[in-house]
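re: ur question from earlier - yeah i can do the single chain one, its not a big deal. heres the input i used so u can compare w yours
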Amino acid sequence: AATSMAFGLWEVGAGLGQYLGDIDRKRMATQGIPVLSHDAGLELFAAGLRSTHASVVPIHVDTAALRRRTDEIPALLRGLAPAPRRASAARRSEATDGLGARLAGLTEGERFRAILRIVRGEVAAVLGHASAEAVGPDRAFQELGFDSLAATELRNRLNRVTGLRLPATLVFDHPTAHSVTEHIQALVGPGIETAGDIRTGPAGTLDRRRPADDEPIAIVGMACRYPGGVATPEDLWRLVMEGVDTVSDLPDDRGWNLGDLYDPEPGKEGKSYTRRGSFLYDAADFDPAFFGISPREAAWMDPQQRLLLETSWEALERAGIDPVTLRGSRTGVFAGVMYHDYALNASPSGTSGGSVVSGRVSYTFGFEGPAVTVDTACSSSLVALHLAVQALRSGECSLALAGGATVMSTPGMFIEFSRQRGLSPDGRCKAFAAAADGVGWSEGVGVLLVERLSDAVRNGHPVLAVVRGTAVNQDGASNGFSAPNGPSQQRVIRQALSAAGVSASEVDAVEAHGTGTTLGDPIEAQALLATYGQDRPADSPLWLGSVKSNIGHSQAAAGVAGVIKMVLALRNGLLPRTLHVDEASPHVDWSEGAVALLSEAREWPGTDRPRRAGVSAFGISGTNAHVVLEQAPEHTDEPPVTTGPGTEPGTATPWLVHGATPEALRAQADRLRSFIGTHPELDPLDVAATLATTRTALECRAAVVGAGRDELLDGLAALARGDVDGG
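and the output i got, formated as tokens:
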């Protein structure tokens, strides 16, 4: 008769067991099922053959280890190691009392650190590390090498040392040592405030403050990357004020067959009749280790995800918020993208799903508010802003990142618009000009950090501008699926004005969609004339411009580029000129309303009301968006004034500099030196306070100490050179 044998792990140097490490074998032993030695396995095999049973289970059971288990013993083994319930309960009570005694008399912060030391120590023991220092508090357990067995062992060990009955899903519900610590702290110390309760509240906390449906939304942070070396909003402002045109050659590092792509004759199948555009030539540059991402995973990540991670971090820091403090908060992410073709031809697993883009930001930063990816083509980033505003007003989140990103992994859009004869041959957008001859494609990323105005003021965040109103609509059954529709554009403008509670004559300027196409621009201009151009004094026209004349049409990142430009225009009291306007388009009857092109830069003087601007974006899918921006209220954009003994001349002041690596630390010192060198109005003590309280404490740190501005700048220069003794 045949005999079926269900062996435990048998040490024979083959099979799946050969891939287990010492830690795995030790873990199995602590659970009561140690590895069978070679000889013991042979003995059990022989015993199985002699057995009269048709099915046997040759395993080694360590009953003492079974009794020491703090989790529930599997039913199959329970009869081999019965344990009195009262004894188990007594052990749990002793452990709980012991933990309580260790935490007694400690402050909240000290209790948290004490529990964190316990958790990190147990994690290190599970993974076989010699020290808890090897366990980063915010590193995900999966990244540390946890599997389901390790998760079970950690839960068991923590049950034993804390006396709690933690769930089997502990590691999945609380995926970092920091998160597990917060959970244990909440269980053993009722009423203790966790990090997530600060400022924004954790995901499970009910925000009882009912936000007003029409409350203005503050823009408190901005970050961007655009062609022409634009790495900050200030770079973008300098570019538009200097009238820079970023058009250049197609990129040569993306696997495009540039020699075969170009044909000067429009409409040729698979060809582009332009070889020009505006591009992010450094789109592939990324520091995955900074975000805790492996190099292999980063290689398969869509560059749009990478750029959104970088700019989201920067937008938070520019608002004076340490991104790490928002982990577990109800911060939302609303990201506009329209390309999902990265690595499409390399591997099906390398394609980039839209949902991953916003989810990647939330996952990396630990946000627990809404994460929404928007694809309405060229209106995506403004629609994302609209949704963020709605979410803030409804209370779904208390802080939100909104924006869009575009990186063209393939030349498909050049080929398609060549077929439609909609491309500008020289790659330039000549918005509303008589010379307009098509769109010039571009790339970029822009992110806004938005918050309810009352929250921004209470939290001390700088208010750069206010979003007074937003609106989104659709062309519906218009004259062709991709053809723009004037009446729909008029409606979305009026809806945004209604939401803002202002009249068209109270808006001074509009950052137009303005792509430079011979069909789209006249339709948009007529819609603006019919709305903003009416009931205005003849000497106070609506001023019309387009940043696309500088950087091209950055598609899903275009709307947010217009917002960043106009926020800076509101703050500086200047309206930049629109390039490439030889004369106004003859296809528009400009006499129908008071609208004028910004063919030259203009002062934007203050009046008895705040400055206001509109921003438009229209998607080829027919989804239209319009936003009304307003100058920030007085004093809300000013940093708090620092006073104290440190302001006395000759007093030593420390500037703290952080970086993820020594190289990054030196680079950050150089950037800080350059920035402060061009802003002489900054007070050294204010700089010190900002560096000490609003920047993440990264692994590599340095303190530059000086008695004045010059000494501090010299110290930064020395640090940038790697001369640690110099400052």
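Residues 191-208, 641-646 have pLDDT under 50 and may be disordered. not sure if urs matches, ping me
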